[in-house]
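Re: that backbone. C-alpha cells:
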C-alpha cells in the first residue's frame, strides 16, 4: 500500500474513528444521556415529519386531481391550490378519526352494559341447572348457590379502584402536568412543522439537494438522492395501498354481514377497516373484538362470523393484499411477515406500520447492489 497523501488521510480517519468508538464504549452512559437529550430536542420535528408524510398522500391526490388544471394556468388560484389541498387533507383525516370514535365507542359501551346484564341474568339460570343436574347436597351446588354477582357492586368496586388510581396520579400533579404539556407541545410543534414542510416541500427539497452536493462527494450525494426518492415512493405507495386495502376489507365485511343479517354490521365494518391498517395481524385483532360482540347476541352467529372471517381473509390475503399493497412495495410475503414481527417487537403498532416500507427500501437497495456486483463480475445466475 502506497503511503501517499490520500491514503494517509484515510488512515488518520480510521484511527480517529477507532479512538472515538473506544471512548464512546467506555463512557456509554454519558453517550446515551446525550443521545436521549438530542432525541428529546428532535422529537417534535420527527413527529412533524411523520405527520407530513401521511398527510402528503391525500394532499398530493387532491392537488393533482382537483387543482391540476388550475396550477397549469398559474395566477393567484394556483398559489391557493396547495393550502386548500392541505386543509382538505387535514379535515379528511380528522373526519376518519371522528367516525371511528363515534361509531365504535358507543357500541362498545352498550355492549359492555349488555354483557354485565347478561352475566347477572345467567347466574340464576346456571344455579338452577346445577341443582337439577346434581344432588341438592352436592358441593358444586353449594358453591354455585354461594355465587352472588351484583353488577352494581362490580361497578362501584371498579369506580373505587379508578378513584384511588386518580388520587395517586393527582398526588404527582406536577409530573402529570409536565408530561401532558410536553406531549401537547411536541404534537403542536410537529403539526406546525408538518404544515410548513408540505407547503414548502419543493423549495426545501431543492435546498437539501444543494446542501448535500455542497457537503458530500458527488457520488454519495447522488446515491443519497436515489435512496430518498426510492423511500419516498415506497412509503407513499404503502400508505395508499394499505388504506385502500383496509377500506375494501371493511366494505366486504359490511356488505356480507348485512346480507347474512349479522348484528353490528356497520360497527364491524368500521372496526375491521381501522384495525386492517395494521399489516398482517390487524384483521385478526378486529376479528376477535367483533367475535366477542356478536357472541353476546348469538353464539351460533358468532361461530358463523368466524367462518365468514376465514373466507374473506383468504380472499383478502390471496387476491387483494398482494395486488394492492404487496406489489406497491415490491416485498416478498416472507419479508413482509419478518418486517411486521420485528417492527411490532421493537416499536409496537407504529413499528408494524413503518417496518414494511423500511425493509422494502433496504431490500430494493440490496437487490440493486447484488445485481450491480453480478454485472461487474459478468455472472448470470439462472
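Recovered sequence:
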Amino acid at each position: 500500500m502506497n503511503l501517499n497523501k490520500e491514503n494517509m488521510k484515510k488512515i488518520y480517519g480510521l484511527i480517529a474513528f477507532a479512538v472515538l468508538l473506544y471512548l464512546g464504549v467506555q463512557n456509554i452512559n454519558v453517550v446515551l444521556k446525550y443521545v436521549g437529550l438530542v432525541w428529546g430536542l428532535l422529537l417534535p420535528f420527527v413527529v412533524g415529519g411523520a405527520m407530513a408524510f401521511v398527510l402528503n398522500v391525500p394532499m398530493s391526490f387532491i392537488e393533482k386531481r382537483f387543482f391540476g388544471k388550475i396550477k397549469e394556468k398559474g395566477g393567484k388560484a394556483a398559489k391557493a391550490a396547495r393550502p386548500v389541498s392541505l386543509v382538505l387533507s387535514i379535515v379528511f383525516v380528522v373526519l376518519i378519526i371522528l367516525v371511528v370514535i363515534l361509531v365504535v365507542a358507543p357500541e362498545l359501551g352498550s355492549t359492555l352494559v349488555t354483557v354485565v346484564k347478561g352475566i347477572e341474568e345467567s347466574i340464576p339460570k346456571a344455579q338452577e341447572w346445577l341443582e337439577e343436574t346434581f344432588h341438592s347436597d352436592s358441593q358444586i351446588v353449594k358453591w354455585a348457590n354461594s355465587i352472588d354477582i351484583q353488577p352494581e357492586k362490580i361497578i362501584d368496586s371498579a369506580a373505587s379502584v379508578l378513584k384511588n388510581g386518580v388520587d395517586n396520579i393527582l398526588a404527582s400533579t406536577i409530573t402529570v402536568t409536565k408530561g401532558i404539556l410536553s406531549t401537547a407541545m411536541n404534537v403542536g410543534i410537529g403539526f406546525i412543522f408538518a404544515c410548513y414542510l408540505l407547503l414548502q416541500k419543493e423549495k426545501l427539497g431543492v435546498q437539501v439537494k444543494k446542501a448535500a452536493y455542497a457537503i458530500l462527494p458527488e457520488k454519495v450525494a447522488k446515491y443519497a438522492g436515489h435512496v430518498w426518492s426510492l423511500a419516498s415512493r415506497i412509503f407513499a405507495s404503502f400508505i395508499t395501498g394499505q388504506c385502500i386495502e383496509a377500506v375494501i376489507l371493511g366494505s366486504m365485511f359490511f356488505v356480507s354481514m348485512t346480507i347474512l343479517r349479522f348484528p353490528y354490521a356497520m360497527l364491524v365494518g368500521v372496526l375491521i377497516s381501522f384495525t386492517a391498517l395494521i399489516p398482517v395481524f390487524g384483521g385478526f385483532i378486529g376479528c376477535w373484538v367483533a367475535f366477542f360482540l356478536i357472541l353476546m347476541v348469538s353464539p351460533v352467529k358468532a361461530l358463523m362470523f368466524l367462518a365468514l372471517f376465514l373466507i374473506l381473509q383468504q380472499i383478502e390475503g390471496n387476491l387483494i393484499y398482494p395486488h394492492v399493497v404487496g406489489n406497491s412495495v415490491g416485498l416478498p410475503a416472507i419479508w413482509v411477515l419478518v418486517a411486521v414481527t420485528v417492527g411490532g417487537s421493537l416499536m409496537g403498532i407504529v413499528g408494524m406500520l413503518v417496518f414494511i416500507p423500511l425493509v422494502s427500501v433496504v431490500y430494493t437497495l440490496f437487490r440493486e447492489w447484488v445485481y450491480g456486483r453480478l454485472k461487474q463480475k459478468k455472472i448470470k445466475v439462472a
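DSSP finds twelve helices and no strands in the chain. Residues 252 and 312 are 8 Å apart (CA to CA).
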